[in-house]
Amino acid sequence: MTELQLGNKNVGDGHSAFIIAEIGINHQGDVSIAKNLIQKAKECGADAVKLQKRCISRILTKSGLEMAYDNRNSFGKTYGEH
Prior knowledge:
Blueprint: E1 4-6, E2 9-11, E3 20-24, H1 31-43, E4 48-51, H2 56-59, H3 62-66
């Protein structure tokens, strides 16, 4: 494997793993939540984080947005509200 440097860490054969924390969309589009999750990942030893952001209104149809989201982890009653 080729060795390379990411930030101040060497990656490749003979080096420890480069840990990437998956935050995904758990920040709910809120920058302060994202910053908090990044800080927690750093405290846990992550070398980097991966985030996602998506616009659900571009992914789902109107009926899809209005569909009931019946889940104990839901942030709203419909997919659009969640």
